[in-house]
Amino acid sequence: MIRVRKFFRPFLLILPVVFFALLGDAAAAGVEPSLCQRLAAEKGLERVLVARYCSDKNKISVDTRIIGKNLKQVEYKATYDRFSAPASVRKAQAFLDENRKWMAEIEKKFKVEAEVITAIFLVESDLGRYPGRYSLLQVFISLASCDQEEYLRRVYRELKPKFPDIDYAWLQRRARKKSAWGYTQLVALLKLADRLEVDSVKGSWAGAFGICQFIPSSCLSYAVDGNGDNKIDLYNFKDAAASVANYLKAHGWRPGLEVKQQEKVVLSYNHSRLYCEAVVALAGQLR
């Protein structure tokens, strides 16, 4: 749980009045006041923290382009085929060779092979080279608001020229589910404020961040310290590797799994059949 410094505690008594007075500013920034009200009532979130973000118009904007990318995800097999190409395999092998010693310690502790962790690093962020460029705060504020008619109509108009067969009723159903998920991740992100610079942390348009591209709820549940400094930093290779291993172990990974069983576990990490096939195939090549 996020700790509030003693300096802020005297203000907690007057904060509800101040907070709801600020909702008008939040609405002007394009976010439903109801979202801020829900966050203010959320258990485990300090109102000081919530009021901070709900009063800043520069941090509260909804981006319909982010919503569109998430509601209408498009995958291509060719995107994943490149990870089995010789150049990609050589890059992953070089990383594995360079870091084999400390990765062996993580493999021994979690019983998850270094080749699988390396494959996930490569597919997720090109071994940390591309962790993402989107503000996570904006991603999850946008997704939490995506079922609102104003934004959904705009997204529909933006998507229709590229996807003529798209149906508005389908988009509404998808938005309801994505909005609920986005709100859950927004709450998780704010709960990470004691270990992340929430204002500036960046990730993918889908809301994943770090070398291993965890979503906030996965970070809360499975991220662990891998280098022994009593901190968890998913932009640190050792922490990211230990966190991936901890996640996979918790979802059923163990030595000796058949290929299809491996793919089933990796599918829990990223709900894409093409993704899990690419990761397992690359890990097999590295072995």
Explain what the structure shows.
- This protein has 287 residues and is mainly α.
- The chain folds into two domains: 60 residues, no CATH class; 226 residues, no CATH class.
- Helices cover 59% and strands 1% of the residues.
- The chain has a two-stranded antiparallel sheet.
- Helix 8 runs parallel beside helix 14.
- The relative contact order is 0.14.
- The N terminus is likely disordered.
Q: Tell me, what's the shape?
A: globular
Q: What's the arrangement of strands in the largest beta sheet?
A: 1-2
**What kind of oligomer do you see?**
single chain
Note the beta-strand portion.
under 5%
SS field, number of helical segments: 16
Q: What's the mean pLDDT score?
A: 87
Sheet of most strands: 2 strands, antiparallel
Share in helix:
55-70%
What's the short version?
With 287 residues, the chain is mainly alpha-helical. The chain contains 16 helices and two strands.
Helix-strand layout with pairing:
Blueprint: H1 15-21, H2 23-28, H3 33-40, H4 47-54, H5 64-71, H6 77-81, H7 86-98, H8 100-110, H9 114-125, E1 134-135, H10 136-144, H11 149-159, H12 168-191, E2 202-203, H13 216-222, H14 237-250, H15 259-269, H16 273-286
Antiparallel strand pairs: 1-2
